[in-house]
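Interim report to the steering committee. The following record documents the input for Collagen alpha-1(XVI) chain (300 residues).
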Amino acid sequence: MIHCLRWTVFLWIVNSIPFTSGMTVNERIDHTCPPMKLEEKWHTNVNIHREFTGFDLAEKFLLRKGTVTDNGLLLRLGSKPLFKPTESVFPNGLSHEYSIIATLRLRKTTKKDRWFVLQIFDKDFSQLISLTVSLIVDGAKKTVEFLAQGFLKNSLLYVFKNRDLHALFDRQFHKLGVSVESNAVSIYLDCKLIERQVTAERSGMNVSGRTFITTRVEDGRPVDIELQEILIFCDARIADLDRCCDSPGVTCEPVVTHNPTAAPLVTGYLHRMLSMPAQLPTDRCHCPALKVKLNHESIF
């Protein structure tokens, strides 16, 4: 009896190690994001001359380069679920404020699909997982959804359904940008601010789970899209500062400032934010923490 009890306690400790050893971003001493090796176009797009920090998810997920088209190089998504341990994608966690930038085109057969651009889960020893961050494109409803875990481990949902988002589903290349601040989330399409919603306080991220990209909600398979890039910048202002200078027919004049290291970070940003009043979220829920039971336990 004592032997069985000791064995049970041992198994519980072993299974709980991956969960309890994971540290949230707020608990880590070093939050520094790694430098990003980006094409020169990004310095023109954002008009700053400093090093970008963040994560190139195409590089993290080892996406191979595929067809070269008139619109640029496409990435191969393959047919297997695109997931990796979160700690291998974000070794020091994810900055509490960040920008997500994805340049893509939906195909005719998938323009009505519901799929995750990014999906981050925490996992505990009982094989239950809770959603930490998720960015969803819903083709049927022509909406973009941002889900996050609240400070009290509740689930926060923000649905963006501005009609200007409908262009994302016209089967042309578009740049989808998301600015995640400490108290707001903003959606951009082709470098134009579409909608901004005030958010509740979010929790930090535990790195013991898994991270998925470009996966269909229905079956977890890669969504059939043409993808050029998917980036996370450790700066919520990049999505706003991006001018899409590399888009066809777009010409950007250099922004002249007296302080090239500081002024470009606020040029345009304050102007847009002050000219557009913050909208209270129309689709927000403070629900009990979202718990999901995966059918494919082998993924974890």
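Residues 2-30, 260-271, 290-297 have pLDDT under 50 and may be disordered. The committee is asked to note this result when reviewing the revised timeline.
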